[in-house]
Amino acid sequence: MNKLEALKKMTVVVADTGDINSIAKFTPTDATTNPSLILKSAVNETYKPLIEEAILYAKSKAAGRNNILDKAITKVAINFGKEILKIVPGRVSTEVDARLSFDTNATIAKAHEIIQMYKELGISSERILIKIASTWEGIVAARELEKNNIHCNLTLLFSFAQAIQCADAGVTLISPFVGRILDWHKKNTAMLEYAPSQDPGVVSVTRIYNYYKNYGYKTIVMGASFRNVDEITELAGCDYLTISPDLLDKLENSQGDQLERKLSPEKAQAEKEDKIVLDEKAFRWIHNEDAMGTDKLAEGIRNFAIDTVKLEKLIASLI
Fold it and tell me: What percent of the chain has pLDDT over 90?
């Protein structure tokens, strides 16, 4: 048994890519996409028909260049999602434009638009996770969407305050970013190397997982943004892990007979901490006090917005 097979026995494995061929290779349960991953795949000639179809669709549904471009950007993500869902048995995460991260109403409207566009293709909302940045405004939007049975994946999650608020909002799934937390600590502290169990990203996700299990939250914890196989194996047993193709390949080519389950509801009982309830003021303060969390959330939104603009320019050149 290789490590990927062993991991699948205790954790739902999700492919973190927009490359449809890679997803087919590793047979994950679900898949996640984001603007950066879609951009990377969109410049591949293999997927050019998905871009062309999105432009034709947008021209038939919208008037005015800006409206056509906005509709086309959304449809590109839908087209990739549609192809991915032909391969995975579970769900695909499709991301709301990062530039809407501080606009609750616009996020809700875009989520409904995404779900409707999937429905036009005969794809149920049960197979879709709407991916939203874990800002206060994004979490409020997700709370409302979940009430309408639109399931959400709250991404760019770095601080414990974000995790607490997402669980209280009843979101379906969160994506804490393991590797980006490690990146920040290497850049901003004297520590350049960490033992796998002391990796700050691993420690963060472990704390969130234990907190959720201790207080009976149904929100799925999906570790994301890994830098190495050790981070993955240290989180074996986490509800979900979304993993890039290169790390899936390394797991598949490593022996996994001795892969130890590190996280479980039973082990979580040994790490119980007091329950925390946050209103908006408390959330903003506690999140603000986490320098890593505030830095990485802001940086993540900026970078996703940059790649969305690049994708817009690519599509605009073809309209």
Answer: 87
Task: Report the distance separating Cα 252 and Cα 140, nearest Å.
Answer: 39
Point out which residues pair with 131 in neighbouring strands. Answer: 95, 153
| Closest alpha carbon to 82 in 135, 51, 122 | 122
pTM metric for this prediction: 0.95
Beta-sheet strands, E only, within the chain: 12-16, 30-32, 92-95, 128-133, 152-157, 173-176, 220-223, 240-243
Residue 177 DSSP class: B
pLDDT for the residue numbered 245? 94
Q: Helix 280-288 and helix 136-147: axis angle, to 10°?
A: 130
Q: How far is Cα 120 from Cα 160, in angstroms, rounded to an integer?
A: 38
Distance between CA atoms of residues 47 and 23, nearest Å: 14
> Hey, what CATH topology would domain 3-28+91-306 get?
TIM Barrel (3.20.20)
Give buried/exposed letters for 193-223 (b at 16+ CB in 10 A, else e): ebeeeebbbbbbbbbbbbbbbbeebebbbbb
pLDDT digits (tens, 9 = 90+) for 288-315: 999 999 999 999 999 999 999 999 998 8
CA dist., res. 134 & res. 294, Å (int): 11
Mean pLDDT of the chain: 95
Q: Point out the residues that are catalytic.
A: 131
Q: What are the residue boundaries of the structural domains of the chain, listed by start?
A: 3-28+91-306
Angle in degrees, CA 37, 56, 80, rounded to 5? 25
